[in-house]
Fold Helix-turn-helix protein.
Amino acid sequence: MRGKTEAITRGALADFLRQRRDALSPEVVGLRAGLRRRAPGLRRDEVARLANMSTTYYERLEQGRGPQPSAAILGGLARALRLDPDERAYLHLLAGHAEPVVAAPAAAVDPRLLSVMRAMAATFPAFVTDDLGTVAAQNELYTRLFGRVAGRPRREGNLFWGWFASGRLRRSVLNPPEHQESIGRNFVAYLRVVVAKRGYDVAAAALVADLCAASEEFLRMWDEHRVSSSPFPVLSVLDDRVGRLDFEGALMVNSRLGQRLYSLHAVTGTPTQQRLTALIVGSSAR
């Protein structure tokens, strides 16, 4: 069954490459159309040259006989064939790779995530980070509870740094030590997955190296090599104005930009939501 699935995927990849090659005119990539072309699209040798690979290797991919292409090979093909983000993601999927992350311009946050985050301001603390945990935006309720994090210099605006290195995120945490250990381990396991999806690139490697150097706890947990797709267990914090707040996290992801919207929701059966409402009303009255 597995062999049949692989054959179907190879066939789909081969057909996708052929279709995209046939649809791309030479003029778009800076080549002359000429008078001796049998079809309007590019020739295989032209795609291979643009993608910086041998013609033989590319021909094998179009015939469904080549080895699994690497992420670097796929990047070259995406550039050569002028693929848009959806087509690039689909190419990686057919080749058995994770969808590539497209870095957002500095200070650019997905407007849809921003809209949802702001709409939560009357009920839930929420914030947006990049895939490595650097906070890019936060709503008013999050700011009232935890202060301004977005825009802090260097690593100070990073979620993982705030937990393991500076300790800023742990100062008001009420969870017992063993539960904090579990929260930290979950953070590290989640970061493991993110770093792997990024292909251990320079930015990801630098963050991990800095965290390992700054925190023995992080280093110990990193060496355990656990993985998790969910970063947030239940978190309890103490607010001087309204008392104990118990949260469970929810997550929305823009996988193409690598941005995450985290929201903290009141645990059912606790007075957290009423206390958040009191905090909002009290702040509005001042």
